């Protein structure tokens, strides 16, 4: 009787902090923050919770690391020949798209201000604001305005998306809201009625970048304003 050759077992990738964080991001994207438990993560990684605790002390640290990974990818160095304005636009859109794809990251950024993920965004934007030759006393204000706009709008966009029922058609939803706005009292909501059509047709990313351009226009005017004082 012939002896069967035993097939060698597939070697499993060693458990590492990077692999744990990547798995956490996957879980957060599928089941949300409430579904991220060390038991679920252990099952996802086919390991025991104890092995995870060797690399991560708890859920708070894990959420921070997952958020940092998402933000780091969003603000990675890009075109080194781009102007400061174009670099800021690219950074802003990168953060916007990252929070749109990972809504939980937006909540983490709002909840843990000035932690490493936020500092990454702050540093990258600050360098570009400085490259615009904004006077030093105005740099903090300029960067704060950009940070508040980027994180606020990106977070609100993600929150709006999450409030929609699964399978909701965005165009049909906006049509319904626009129709409601158009029927508002003309004396109490004179302005809101006039933009109902734009609400129906607007593109979130385009409007987001238009807002960035408005802020950049103000920032690039700071040097001239300061010089005349």
SSE topology sketch:
Elements: H1 17-31, H2 38-45, H3 49-53, H4 59-74, H5 84-101, H6 103-111, H7 116-131, H8 136-163, H9 170-182, H10 190-194, H11 196-201, H12 204-220, H13 222-228
Helix pairs in contact: 1-2, 1-4, 4-6, 4-7, 5-6, 5-7, 5-8, 5-12, 6-8, 7-8, 8-12
CATH class of the domain at 79-228: Mainly Alpha
Helix amount, in percent?
over 70%
Could you give the order of the helices and strands? HHHHHHHHHHHHH
Q: Could you report the average pLDDT, rounded to the nearest whole number?
A: 87
Secondary structure tally, helices: 13
Morphology call: flat
Would you identify the regions where 5 or more consecutive residues have pLDDT less than 50? 4-11, 225-229
Q: Got a strand count? A: 0
Q: Name the CATH homologous superfamily of the domain at 79-228.
A: Tetracycline Repressor, domain 2
CATH topology of the domain at 79-228: Tetracycline Repressor, domain 2
* CATH architecture verdict of the domain at 79-228: Orthogonal Bundle
Structural class: mainly alpha
As a whole number of angstroms, the C-alpha radius of gyration is 23 Å
How would you describe this protein?
By secondary structure, the protein is mostly helical. The protein has a domain at 79-228: Tetracycline Repressor, domain 2 (Orthogonal Bundle), CATH 1.10.357. It is 71% helix and 0% strand. Mean pLDDT is 87; it is low at 4-11 and 225-229.
């Amino acid at each position: 009787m012939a002896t069967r050759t035993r097939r060698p077992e597939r070697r499993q990738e060693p458990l590492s902090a990077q692999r744990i964080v990547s798995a956490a991001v996957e879980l957060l994207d599928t089941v949300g923050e409430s579904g991220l438990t060390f038991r679920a993560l252990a099952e996802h990684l086919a390991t025991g919770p104890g092995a995870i605790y060797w690399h991560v002390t708890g859920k708070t640290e894990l959420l921070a690391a997952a958020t940092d990974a998402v933000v780091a990818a969003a603000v990675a160095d890009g075109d080194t020949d781009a102007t400061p304005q174009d670099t800021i636009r690219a950074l802003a859109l990168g953060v916007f798209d990252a929070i749109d794809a990972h809504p939980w990251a937006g909540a983490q950024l709002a909840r843990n201000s000035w932690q490493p993920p936020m500092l990454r965004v702050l540093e990258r934007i600050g360098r570009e604001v400085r490259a615009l030759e904004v006077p030093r006393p105005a740099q903090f204000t300029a960067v704060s305005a950009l940070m508040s706009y980027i994180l606020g709008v990106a977070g609100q966009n993600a929150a709006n998306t999450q409030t929609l029922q699964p399978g909701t058609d965005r165009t049909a939803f906006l049509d319904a809201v626009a129709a409601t706005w158009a029927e508002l009292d003309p004396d109490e909501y004179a302005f809101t009625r006039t933009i109902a059509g734009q609400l129906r047709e607007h593109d979130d990313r385009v409007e987001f970048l238009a807002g960035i351009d408005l802020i950049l226009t103000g920032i690039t005017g700071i040097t001239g304003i300061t010089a005349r004082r």
